[in-house]
Design a protein that fits this description.
The complex is a heterodimer of chains A (118) and B (162).
Chain A: H1 10-13, H2 17-27, E1 31-32, H3 33-40, H4 44-56, E2 60-65, E3 68-73, H5 79-112
Antiparallel strand pairs in A: 1-3, 2-3
Chain B: E1 11-13, E2 19-26, H1 30-38, H2 40-46, E3 52-59, E4 66-73, E5 78-89, E6 93-100, E7 107-117, E8 120-128, H3 132-161
Antiparallel strand pairs in B: 1-2, 2-8, 3-4, 4-5, 5-6, 6-7, 7-8
The chains are: A mainly alpha (118), B alpha+beta (162).
């Protein structure tokens, strides 16, 4: 799959571990920058840099509250990632449903043969 | 909580940037799940996920033994995987390498466990890649073959109209 540049691609934006930490914190509720800085134990410039990438990819949104900037998670923007995993999950589920049928046949054979043997 | 049906669905999570975890519960004891997972004649019945015909299933189930699965999708796209068994504990645990032949430099290590409780089996497969790039390509590979099938079918349809 072709990927867009980091600044416009949710996949790359969440590839960075510290950015995922920010998303995890924001998943609990919105937070001003200074709280993110203290909870992450990172410098303000680094946090701001990550927040800029997350904002540009639409993963987080910001609002002004007086002189503070408060960030929150934009859940809808994570949908492409969710869909991507769901497709992979669907392939496995089809495989496992075919395995369910194989297992039913094996169980019937064991019952017929008075099985239960390992 | 809603009532739980006896049907369980596959759940895929990404516990770390280089990992994929696949879990599923089966309504069968684990020695049968293990047999279905490791017997070539049974693998042929489930591995294609209804996406094509399984053409090769080779299983040399012992430490250092090799395995290889190949299928040809209904769109004519050949998809092959192979690897080596690193650990074999019958009915309980398998560790094996896995290489997607479309991307031979991305080798993963799969740790598969079978846990039985009350006649049901919890199956877990942890896929450990060496890089996030390979992990992501692995997840996308299923989509790519699906997309390739769709494009092939579209081409066939277009040719039949010409």
């Amino acid at each position: 799959m072709a990927r867009a540049a980091t600044t416009t691609d949710a996949f790359n934006a969440v590839a960075e571990p510290r950015r995922r930490e920010i998303l995890d914190l924001l998943a609990e509720g919105e937070r001003p920058v200074n709280e993110l800085v203290s909870e992450l134990g990172m410098g303000q410039p680094q946090v701001s840099k990550h927040l800029r990438v997350l904002r540009e990819t639409g993963l987080v949104e910001v609002r002004e509250e007086g002189r503070r900037r408060v960030y929150r998670l934009n859940g809808a923007s994570l949908k492409p990632i969710h869909d991507w995993i769901k497709t992979y999950e669907g392939t496995w589920e089809e495989r496992f449903e075919a395995m369910d049928e194989v297992l039913e046949a094996l169980k019937r054979t064991e019952e017929r043969d008075g099985g239960g043997n390992e | 909580m809603a009532a739980v049906t006896s049907r369980s669905r596959a759940v895929v999570t990404l516990p770390a940037p280089t990992q994929i975890l696949i879990t599923r519960e089966f309504a069968a004891p684990r020695h049968l799940v293990y047999r279905a997972w490791t017997s070539p004649e049974l693998i042929r019945q489930w591995w294609s996920a209804n996406r094509g015909e399984v053409t090769v299933v080779e299983v040399d189930l012992r430490v250092g033994g090799k395995w290889r699965f190949v299928m040809v999708t209904f769109g004519g796209f050949e998809v092959g995987f192979h690897g080596e068994y690193l650990e074999v504990v019958a009915n309980e645990r398998l560790v094996n390498t896995e290489v997607y032949e479309g991307m031979p430099d991305g080798q993963a290590v799969n740790t598969i466990t079978f846990e039985e409780e009350g006649g049901r089996t919890k199956f877990m497969c942890l896929v450990q890649h060496t890089s996030q790039e390979h992990r992501d390509a692995h997840i996308a590979s299923g989509m790519e073959s699906g997309l390739q099938d769709a494009l092939d079918l579209l081409e066939q349809a277009a040719q039949s109209l010409a």
